[in-house]
Amino acid sequence: MTLRRNASVKYTPGEVMALIEGGKRAGWEFFFLGAELANFDDAERIGITSDRRSRVSKAGMGANFCTMSENVKDYMRDGRVSADRADKLEKGDDADDA
Predict the structure, then answer these.
(1) Are 56 and 33 in contact (CB under 8 A)?
(2) What is the pLDDT of residues 16-50, one digit of tens each?
(3) Contact 80, 74 (CB under 8 A)
(4) Do the beta carbons of residue 64 and residue 33 sit within 8 Å?
(5) What distance in Å separates the CA atoms of residue 33 and residue 69, rounded to the nearest whole number?
(6) Residue 8 clears pLDDT 80, i.e. is over it
(7) SS3 call for 78
(8) 3-state helix, strand, coil in the chain (%, to 5)
(9) CB-based burial of residue 76 (10 Å sphere; 0-12 exposed, 13-18 middle, 19+ buried)?
(10) b/e map of 4-22 (b: 16 or more CB within 10 Å)?
């Protein structure tokens, strides 16, 4: 057996979108955290809606990860993510790159 150092696979945005849609049909939830507003275009291309994406800044990273942790707890307890909790993710408009 030959070990490969990097066995990553490249997918097109359409292929990623199809994988995500399959996951959603199976009951999965998807959130997109990006460091730059340009990443939101990438999220849109793979089918991540605006209520499921957030810009992550150095200053807001801790708060976003706490919110994501609460999202996971909601999902494990109720089988869904609270819509108001998704709204608590830091939005790109007022995020800071500090």
Answers:
(1) yes
(2) 999 999 999 998 888 888 877 677 888 888 888 87
(3) yes
(4) yes
(5) 13
(6) no
(7) helix
(8) 45, 5, 45
(9) exposed
(10) eeeeeeeeeeeeeeeebee
